Amino acid sequence: MKRMFVLGAIGIILVADAAVLIGVASSRRGGADAALRLTERELGAVAESADDSAVILFPRYVEGAGRIGPRSARLTASKAAELGIAARPGWSAAKRVFAVLELQPEAPAGASRLRAADVGLDPAALRSRYPDRSRYAVTRAVVRVGPNGEAWVNVLPESIYVPTPRVGVFRRYPAHYSVTLCYSRQGDCWVCGAEAP
Fold first, then answer.
1. Domain locations along the chain
2. DSSP string spanning 64-93?
3. What per-residue confidence (pLDDT) applies to 50?
4. What is the pLDDT of residue 51?
5. Closest CA to 44 of 69, 73, 72, 71
6. Count helices and strands in the chain by DSSP H and E runs
7. How far apart are CA 71 and CA 77, in angstroms?
8. CA distance 20 to 168
9. Spatial distance between the Cα atoms of 41 and 120, rounded to a whole number of angstroms
10. Under a CB-based contact definition with an 8 Å cutoff, are residues 136 and 102 in contact?
11. What pLDDT score does 63 carry?
12. pLDDT means per 10 residues in the chain (197 residues)?
């Protein structure tokens, strides 16, 4: 009986993983809706294993106050209301939205050029407002209201795995690199290019 339970649990996990992979593959099959070419200024790279066989990228965003971190933008009360979010003090459940990422042409030396330019519920409407696909990408995000009543956007994904064939770039040039992130119309993100500058 216990063995049947364990096998059933494993089966559920495998089916769930397969569904996620099929969804990602289907999303990518339509091609990239946008491609942003970023550097170490916008993407921190961390080796997951001692032999550097797996590398994870962590996007850095410019916050409203000029700081860099995982929270990318503080929402005004009017924008929160537009998204159907009541900005009251106390942690709220995360609301799934879409964010427009902007690769700004200029930034202080060494600073990230990546920021959340807008947020909305309809990715197609956001794309129509920001048509330049080499400067703007529409991606998934969540909004939370913190204890002080401020609403913040957290851009997703918070980490991105580098495909094995592209890991060598980070091994040979750990301090400087250029990475192209592709985004689908559904807001999925993946590494579609990596090279030394």
1. 33-195
2. TTS-EESEEEEEPHHHHHHTT----SS---
3. 65
4. 66
5. 69
6. 4, 13
7. 17
8. 27
9. 26
10. yes
11. 64
12. 44 37 46 95 84 85 56 78 78 86 89 91 96 96 84 90 91 85 96 90
The whole-angstrom separation of Cα 94 and Cα 140 is: 12
Residue with tokens 């080499």: 134
Which amino acid type is present at position 190?
W
CB contact set of 100 (below 8 Å; sequence gap of 6+): 116, 117, 118, 119, 120, 126, 129, 130, 136, 137, 138
Distance of CA 19 to the CA centre of its chain: 20
Give the pair of three-digit tokens for residue 3: 């063995």
Structure-block tokens of residue 109: 């030396």
66-104 burial, b if ≥16 CB within 10 A, otherwise e? eebeebbbbbeeebbeeeebebeeeebeebebbbbbbbe
The residue behind tokens 């200029």 is: 106
User: Tokens 């559920």 identify what position?
Assistant: 12
- Sign of the CA dihedral 6, 7, 8, 14? positive
Q: What is the DSSP letter of 164?
A: G
CA 4 – CA 80 distance, rounded (Å): 48
